[in-house]
Write a structure and sequence with these properties.
Layout (H helix, E strand, L loop, with lengths): L4 E5 L5 E7 L2 E6 L2 E6 L18 E6 L2 E6 L7 E5 L2 E5 L14 H10 L5 E5 L5 H7 L4 E6 L2 H13 L7 E5 L2 H11 L5 E4 L4 E3 L5 E3 H15 L6 E7 L5 H11 L5 E10 L7 E11 L1
Parallel strand pairs: 1-16, 4-5, 9-10, 9-12, 10-11, 12-15
Antiparallel strand pairs: 2-3, 3-4, 5-6, 7-8, 13-14, 15-17, 16-17
Helix pairs in contact: 1-2, 4-5
């Protein structure tokens, strides 16, 4: 029997989805308003006037794209969620260094991860989930193949007052690192994964979500303490239904007892308050 999918909308004060539509979204990060592509926004915009306030906009041309600057924008600036602080930088591939919908997961992490737990964050990006776990006293191993984003994560840790927290920052191909951890005989209470649709490791190792995730989850099962633990698996809007991900978790990790399937969203500040779907997360416990 499948698990009903629930919906969660992230809560921020420093970040807002102002409006969405026509395959774009208009967002506020701190005081900076930006427009970016959004393939999920099939509908018409709700508040055309807010788009005129944009400081910058990203337009894609095929696989590439560029920012158009309408108003003066700093090279970087900070935003905060609760007591965590993050550095924002618009990148050449449209990202900002933060996925705001993940604040729903950070809230879950803070409510469920306990002091002293060992946490492995795979595809950790700039460290949002890592800092959420470290802030409640967990020992965290953060792994990502990109040295620049790991450096960015360390910067966010310093900004959040967690520069001396027990975080092990690893620049490595996730699959290779997990294999080495199995050989070392290491175990974790919690594993969190935020895999991209497609990526490459530091030595050009290929990652493709549908091809490589099943084997990676099977290996993760060998690193999790079987008596009790947690798994958090993110899948952005890649076209895979929650049930497919739930079935994958149940087959690779038969010790799982409870599963929550959650659709992460961002809610517009427009009068219509549409929710923008941003991906599926599976939260498993045992």
């Amino acid at each position: 029997m499948s698990t009903p999918v629930i919906r969660e909308s992230a809560v921020w004060s420093d970040i807002a989805l102002l409006d969405s539509g026509n395959f774009e979204k208009c967002e506020r990060y701190g005081d900076i308003v930006m427009v970016r592509p959004e393939p999920q926004a099939l509908w018409d915009v709700g508040s055309p006037s807010v788009w005129q306030s944009a400081h910058l906009a990203y337009k894609r041309q095929g696989r590439e794209g560029e920012w158009t600057i309408h108003k003066s924008v700093p090279e970087s600036w900070n935003v905060s969620w609760e007591n965590l602080t993050f550095r924002i930088r618009p990148t050449s591939f449209k990202h900002t260094g933060l996925f705001p919908e993940q604040a729903s997961n950070w809230k879950w992490i803070r409510e469920n991860v306990k002091p002293g737990m060992t946490v492995l964050n795979l595809f950790g990006y700039t460290g949002g989930a890592t800092l959420a776990a470290a802030s409640v006293g967990a020992d965290v191993t953060h792994c990502d193949a990109s040295k620049p984003v790991v450096t960015w994560g360390k910067e966010n840790a310093e900004l959040s007052g967690l520069g001396d927290a027990p975080i092990r920052w690893i620049v490595d191909d996730v699959q290779k690192f997990v294999s080495r951890e199995i050989r070392r005989g290491n175990f974790y209470d919690v594993i969190m994964l935020d895999p991209p649709a497609f990526g490459r490791g530091p030595e050009g190792e290929l990652w493709q979500f549908e091809e490589h995730l099943p084997a990676l989850l099977a290996d993760c099962a060998k690193l999790l303490k079987p008596e009790s633990g947690m798994l958090l698996l993110n899948a952005y809007s890649l076209g895979f239904p929650a049930l497919a991900l739930e079935n994958l978790v149940r087959t690779t990790m038969p010790f799982v007892k409870t599963i929550a399937a959650v659709e992460l969203t961002l809610k517009e500040e427009s009068p219509r308050a549409f929710e923008l779907p941003t991906g599926i997360v599976i939260r498993a416990t045992w």
